[in-house]
C-alpha cells in the first residue's frame, strides 16, 4: 500500500503542471460564457476589465504580502517598468481588445483564434533561443509538426462548418446573441482578437525573463493586476463617458466581475506563472488548443449553440497536435535532466585533468 501511495504521489507530482493547465483552460472556457452573458446584459467591456483587475489585486495582496514578505526581491524602477509593460500586454489593453472582440463574434470563434498564441510564442521562443530546434531531432520535429497540426485543426474549426449536429436536449443556459451585430462587426472583432493574441504571446515570453529577476509569483501577479487595473481605468474613463456604465447591480454583471477577478486574473495567472517557471512559456501555451475543444463541448451541451461537424473534426485534429507538442516537450525535458545529471557527475569527479578536455554538449533545448 505504501509503495502504491508513493507511486501515486510521484505520478501526481510529475503531471501536476499538466493537470493545472488543463484546469486553467476549463476556467477560461467558463469565463467566456459568463462574460458574454454579462456583455449581452449591458456590461461595458472597458468597465469589466477595470473592475476585474482591481478586484484581483485586492484579493491577492494579502497573500503576496504575507507569503513572500521575506523572500520577495527589492522593487526597483527597472522592475516596475517591466511590471507596467507586462500589465499592458497581459491584463489591460490586451484584455480590452479580446473581450470587445468576443462581444463582436462568439466564444467558439474567439477560442479558435486564441490557439494561435501557442504558435506565435513558439516562433518568438525559437528566435530568442529559448527553444532550440534541431531539424534532425525527432523531438524538435514533433513540436513543429504538433504546432502545425494544431493550427490546422483551428483552421478547420474556423473555416469548415459542415452539417449541423442536432442538440440532444434543450440548453441549460440561454444566452441571447445579437446575430446582426455579430455579422456586421465580425472583421473588427477578428482583428482585435488577433492583436490581443500577439500581445499575450509576447507577455508569456516576457514573464519567463521577469521571473528570473523577480521569483515571487504571488507578488508579480498582484503587481500586474494592480497596475493593469490602473491602466484600464485611465483609458476606460477616456473612452467611456457614461457614468451609469460604472454602476453594477446584483446580477450577472457582478458575478462576471467576481469570477473574472478572483479566478481568471488572480488564481489562473498565478498558476500560469508557476507553470512558466517550472516548464517554460511554450509548455503553458501548449494547452491553449484544449480551450477550443472545451468551449465547443460546453457550447453544445450547456448553452445550446449549434455544433457543426467541422468543429468535431477540428477538435480531434487539435488534440492530436497537442499530444505531439507535449510528447516532444516532455522528451526534451527528460533529455535535459539526463544531461544535467551527467554534467553534475563530471563536475564531482574532476580530479582527472583529462576529464576537462571534453568538447561539450550541443545546444540543449529548454
Automatic annotation (TrEMBL):
Residues 337-366 are annotated as: Disordered. Residues 346-366 have a biased composition (Polar residues). InterPro entries: EamA_dom, EmrE-like, WAT1-related. It holds the Pfam family EamA. The chain crosses the membrane at residues 20-39, 45-67, 79-100, 112-132, 144-162, 186-206, 244-270, 282-301, 307-326. One of its GO terms (cellular component) is membrane. Residues 19-158, 188-326 form the EamA domain. It is found in: Membrane. It is a multi-pass membrane protein. The keyword Transmembrane applies. GO terms for molecular function: transmembrane transporter activity. Keywords: Membrane, Transmembrane, Transmembrane helix. This is WAT1-related protein. It comes from Acacia crassicarpa (northern wattle). The lineage of its organism: Eukaryota, Viridiplantae, Streptophyta, Embryophyta, Tracheophyta.
Amino acid at each position: 500500500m505504501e509503495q502504491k501511495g508513493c507511486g501515486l504521489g510521484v505520478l501526481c507530482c510529475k503531471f501536476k503542471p499538466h493537470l493545472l493547465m488543463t484546469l486553467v483552460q476549463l476556467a477560461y472556457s467558463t469565463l467566456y460564457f459568463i462574460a458574454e452573458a454579462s456583455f449581452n446584459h449591458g456590461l461595458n467591456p472597458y468597465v469589466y476589465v477595470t473592475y476585474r483587475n482591481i478586484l484581483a489585486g485586492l484579493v491577492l495582496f494579502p497573500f503576496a504580502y504575507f507569503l513572500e514578505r521575506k523572500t520577495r526581491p527589492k522593487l526597483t524602477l527597472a522592475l516596475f517598468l517591466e511590471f507596467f509593460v507586462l500589465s499592458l500586454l497581459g491584463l489591460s489593453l490586451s484584455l480590452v481588445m479580446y473581450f470587445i472582440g468576443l462581444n463582436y463574434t462568439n466564444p467558439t470563434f474567439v477560442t479558435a483564434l486564441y490557439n494561435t498564441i501557442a504558435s506565435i510564442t513558439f516562433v518568438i521562443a525559437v528566435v530568442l533561443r529559448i527553444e532550440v530546434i534541431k531539424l534532425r531531432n525527432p523531438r524538435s520535429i514533433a513540436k513543429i509538426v504538433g504546432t502545425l497540426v494544431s493550427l490546422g485543426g483551428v483552421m478547420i474549426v474556423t473555416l469548415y462548418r459542415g452539417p449541423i449536429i442536432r442538440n440532444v436536449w434543450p440548453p441549460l443556459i440561454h444566452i441571447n446573441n445579437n446575430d446582426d451585430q455579430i455579422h456586421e462587426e465580425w472583421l473588427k472583432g477578428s482583428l482585435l482578437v488577433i492583436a490581443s493574441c500577439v500581445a499575450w504571446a509576447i507577455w508569456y515570453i516576457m514573464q519567463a525573463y521577469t521571473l528570473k529577476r523577480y521569483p515571487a509569483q504571488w507578488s508579480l501577479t498582484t503587481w500586474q493586476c494592480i497596475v493593469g487595473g490602473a491602466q484600464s481605468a485611465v483609458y476606460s474613463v477616456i473612452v467611456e463617458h457614461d457614468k451609469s456604465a460604472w454602476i453594477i447591480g446584483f446580477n450577472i454583471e457582478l458575478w462576471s466581475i467576481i469570477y473574472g477577478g478572483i479566478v481568471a486574473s488572480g488564481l489562473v495567472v498565478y498558476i500560469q506563472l508557476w507553470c512558466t517557471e517550472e516548464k517554460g512559456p511554450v509548455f503553458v501555451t501548449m494547452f491553449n488548443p484544449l480551450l477550443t475543444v472545451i468551449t465547443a463541448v460546453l457550447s453544445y451541451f450547456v448553452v445550446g449553440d449549434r455544433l457543426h461537424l467541422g468543429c468535431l473534426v477540428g477538435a480531434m485534429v487539435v488534440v492530436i497536435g497537442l499530444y505531439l507538442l507535449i510528447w516532444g516537450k516532455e522528451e526534451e525535458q527528460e533529455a535535459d535532466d539526463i544531461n544535467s545529471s551527467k554534467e553534475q557527475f563530471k563536475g564531482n569527479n574532476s580530479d582527472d585533468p583529462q576529464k576537462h578536455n571534453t568538447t561539450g554538449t550541443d545546444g540543449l533545448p529548454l
